[in-house]
Specification:
This protein has 632 residues and is mostly beta strands. It contains 6 helices and 51 strands. It is 11% helix and 36% strand. The longest helix has 22 residues.
C-alpha cells in the first residue's frame, strides 16, 4: 500500500509546481544582479519583491544572510511591500544552498532592519519594516500560501500619531503591518521562524493585524520570538484589531493562531493616550470579535512600564482580550518577576487548558465584566498568600474551573469540581523551571475530556507526550513523559484552483520513516491519499525540515488514478471501509470542482479535513492536529 501511495504522490504533482521559479537575494552578490542564482542575486529585497509581483511564476524568494533596509534614501515611510498570494519568502541562507532545508537562520541571520538613518538614534527609523496588504485597487485574498520564514525584524519605530496616504498608520505595526485596507477580504499569511526584537510603537504592535479572516483561514504565527518590544498603549508584541469594532465599518472578524512562540521582556504602558483603558497586553492584545488560539507558547518577564505615571489599566502582561473576542490558551506558560497580572479579560471569553500561570506577588487573572472564563487542567499560582489569584475589576462574574490548582483566595464566583488548593510543587520557579516535582498534586489529576489531541496536538510544552500515564496531568508540563518521535511545526492545507496544497514542517525527528497524508469528510474517519518519505538522514534530525505535497483534485487525471486505485483495492480484497473512503474522496473531488466553477459557493459547502500520520520505522504512528482544509 505504501509503495502505491508513493506512486500516487508522484503522478499527482501538478505542472505549476514543476515550473515554479526561485529568485535569489544577496546584498554581497557581484554578478549580473538579475536574481537568477546566488552569484547573480538581487542585492536588494525590494527589487526581488518587485520582480515577484510582476511575474507570478515566481513562488519563492531566497534571501542570504546580512542586513537589509526598506529604504535607501532614509525615507521613513518606505517598507518592504507584499500584495500577492502563493509566495514563500525565506531568510537564513549562507548563499550557497540548493535546498531550503539546508539553511540555518540561527547561524546565518537575515535581518530586516528599520535603522535606516543615524545608527545611534531610533528617532529616524522606519515606521514599518514590512507591510503585507491587499491591493487597494483590486483586493484579492491572501492566505497561508504567503509565507515569511527565517527573518529577524528589528528596530522599527512607529512613533508618530499620523497616517500616511490614509492607509499606513505611523503609530502601529513597527516591524510588520498586515492590513486588509478596509476590504472585507481574507488576509491570513503564515509568519514562521522569525524574530521580532527591539521594535517600538507609539500606540501598539511590533506585529499589527488589521485584517479579515474568512472561513477557516487564520493568520498563523509559528515558532517566532518576540523580545524587547515596546508600545505606548496596547499589544507591545502583537496587536490584533477587528476593524468593525473599532468603528471603521468593515464587516468581518479575525482569526489568529499563535503556536510554539516565545514572548520575552516586552513592555507596555499608556504613554500615548493616558486615560483608563490603555497599558494592556504586553505580549498579545486583541480588540473586538474574533478568535485567538495560543498553543505551546511561553510568556516570560513581560512587563508594564516604564511610563506608568500615566493613568491606565496596566494588566495583561501576557495576554489581554477585549470587547467580544474568544481566546484559548493551551499548553502554555506565563510567569514574570513583577507583580502585574499576566491575563486580562474584559467583556470577552477566555479559556485556559493545561496552562501554567505564575505570578510571585499578585493575581494570575483579572476579569472585567467578562462573557465567560473557563479554566481546565491548569495551574494558577502566587507565592503571596494574601493575594487573590483571580481578581475582579468590574461585575459579578462566574468562573468555571475544572481539575485545576489555584490559591484558595479569589474574587468572583467559582463553579466546577476537582479544584486543588495545595502548592503545585514546581521543580524550580526561581530558574524558570515549572515542570512538576515527583509527588506534585498535579500529576495524574487532570481530566482528559477537556484536552482534544486532534485540536491541541499530542505534545506538552516540553515536546513530550501529553499523556504519559493513565491520566493527563494538570499544567503545561507532563510528568515522567518521553519525547515525541516527531515534533510537528507549522501545518497548512488549502484547495486552490483545483489543487490540494499541503505544507508542514518538523522541528525534530527520531526514527521517522514516512508521513501519510489522510483526509476525511467529517474529521473522524480518515483515509490515506499519499505517502511522503522522511527527509531526515536515517529518520533522525534535530533541525527543522519543511515538506510540501501538491495534488490535483480536479479534471480526469486524479479521477482516473483514484478509479484505478479503487479497482486495485477490489482485486486485493481490501475492506469495504477503505473502498468507501475512496468513494468519499471521489465525491469530494466532484464537490470541489463544482465549488470552484460556481462563484456563489461558500466555504460552508466545503467539508474536507486533513491530518498527517507520522510513521516510525517500527510502524508506530503519531498524528498531527486535525485541520479543516480552506478553500481559496
Amino acid at each position: 500500500m505504501k509503495k502505491f501511495l508513493s506512486v500516487l504522490l508522484l503522478l499527482s504533482f501538478s505542472s505549476p509546481l514543476l515550473f515554479s521559479q526561485i529568485i535569489y537575494v544577496n546584498h554581497a552578490a557581484t554578478g549580473s544582479n538579475d536574481g537568477s542564482s546566488w552569484q547573480n542575486a538581487y542585492p536588494s529585497l525590494t527589487a526581488a519583491l518587485t520582480a515577484a509581483h510582476t511575474n507570478t511564476s515566481v513562488t519563492q524568494i531566497w534571501v542570504a544572510k546580512g542586513t537589509y533596509y526598506p529604504s535607501s534614501t532614509n525615507n521613513r515611510d518606505h517598507f518592504f511591500n507584499i500584495r500577492r498570494n502563493n509566495l514563500q519568502v525565506y531568510g537564513g541562507f549562507a548563499g550557497t544552498e540548493t535546498q531550503v532545508t539546508q539553511r540555518n537562520s540561527a547561524v546565518h541571520p537575515t535581518i530586516l532592519s528599520g535603522n535606516i538613518g543615524a545608527a545611534a538614534s531610533n528617532s529616524d527609523n522606519s515606521y514599518h519594516i514590512m507591510v503585507i496588504e491587499l491591493n487597494p485597487s483590486n483586493p484579492q485574498p491572501i492566505d497561508n500560501s504567503l509565507v515569511i520564514d527565517g527573518f529577524t525584524f528589528s528596530e522599527g519605530n512607529a512613533n508618530a500619531g499620523s497616517v500616511f496616504n490614509s492607509l499606513y498608520p505611523r503609530y502601529t505595526g513597527s516591524s510588520l503591518f498586515i492590513s486588509c485596507n478596509f476590504s472585507s477580504v481574507n488576509i491570513t499569511p503564515l509568519i514562521r521562524n522569525c524574530i521580532f526584537a527591539d521594535n517600538r510603537a507609539f500606540s501598539s504592535g511590533a506585529l499589527t493585524y488589521y485584517g479579515i479572516s474568512a472561513g477557516s483561514n487564520a493568520l498563523t504565527i509559528e515558532q517566532c520570538t518576540f523580545q524587547n518590544n515596546y508600545a505606548g498603549y496596547a499589544g507591545a508584541a502583537i496587536d490584533v484589531m477587528q476593524l468593525d469594532a473599532a468603528g471603521y465599518g468593515v464587516p468581518g472578524v479575525f482569526s489568529v493562531a499563535v503556536e510554539k512562540c516565545s514572548f520575552l521582556n516586552n513592555s507596555i504602558d499608556n504613554y500615548s493616550q493616558g486615560g483608563a483603558n490603555g497599558g494592556v497586553g504586553a505580549g498579545i492584545n486583541t480588540f473586538g470579535q474574533g478568535t485567538l488560539k495560543v498553543n505551546n507558547t511561553t510568556f516570560v518577564n513581560n512587563t508594564i512600564g516604564p511610563a506608568t505615571s500615566f493613568a491606565g489599566t496596566y494588566k495583561g502582561t501576557a495576554v489581554s482580550v477585549r470587547n467580544g473576542g474568544t481566546t484559548t490558551i493551551v499548553n502554555s506558560l506565563a510567569y514574570a518577576n513583577n507583580n502585574y497580572i499576566p491575563f486580562y479579560n474584559i467583556q470577552s471569553t477566555l479559556t485556559l487548558v493545561n496552562a501554567t500561570v505564575y505570578n510571585p506577588g499578585s493575581s494570575a487573572l483579572d476579569v472585567n465584566n467578562p462573557v465567560a472564563n473557563n479554566i481546565y487542567n491548569s495551574i494558577l499560582w502566587t507565592d503571596n498568600g494574601s493575594a487573590n489569584i483571580i481578581a475582579v475589576s468590574n461585575g459579578s462574574p462566574t468562573i468555571n474551573i475544572e481539575n485545576s490548582i489555584l490559591n484558595a483566595m479569589h474574587q468572583g464566583t467559582i463553579t466546577g469540581s476537582n479544584i486543588i488548593t495545595t502548592n503545585p510543587a514546581f521543580a524550580n520557579p526561581a530558574s524558570g523551571d515549572f515542570s512538576l516535582q515527583p509527588g506534585s498534586p498535579a500529576i495524574n489529576s487532570g481530566n482528559g475530556t477537556f484536552y482534544n489531541n486532534s485540536t491541541y496536538g499530542n505534545g506538552d510544552l516540553g515536546g513530550n507526550h501529553r499523556i504519559a500515564q493513565a491520566t493527563i496531568d494538570i499544567g503545561a508540563y507532563e510528568s515522567s513523559s518521553t519525547a515525541l518521535p516527531v515534533l510537528f511545526g507549522a501545518l497548512s492545507a488549502a484547495v486552490r484552483n483545483g489543487q490540494l496544497l499541503v505544507n508542514w514542517s518538523t522541528e525534530s525527528e527520531i526514527n521517522n520513516d514516512h508521513f501519510d497524508i489522510e483526509v476525511s469528510a467529517d474529521g473522524k474517519q480518515f483515509t490515506p491519499i499519499a505517502s511522503v518519505e522522511s527527509k531526515a538522514p536515517d529518520g533522525n534530525s534535530a533541525t527543522p525540515i519543511t515538506y510540501t505535497f501538491n495534488s490535483s483534485l480536479t479534471g480526469p487525471h486524479l479521477q482516473t488514478v483514484l478509479f484505478s486505485l479503487l479497482l486495485l483495492l477490489q482485486t486485493v480484497h481490501l475492506r469495504r471501509k477503505k473502498i468507501a473512503g475512496l468513494v468519499l474522496i471521489i465525491s469530494l473531488v466532484a464537490i470541489l470542482s463544482c465549488s470552484k466553477s460556481n462563484p456563489a459557493t461558500t466555504d460552508k459547502e466545503l467539508r474536507l479535513y486533513l491530518r498527517i500520520a507520522q510513521v516510525d520505522k517500527d510502524g508506530k504512528k503519531e498524528y498531527s492536529k486535525i485541520l479543516k482544509v480552506s478553500e481559496q
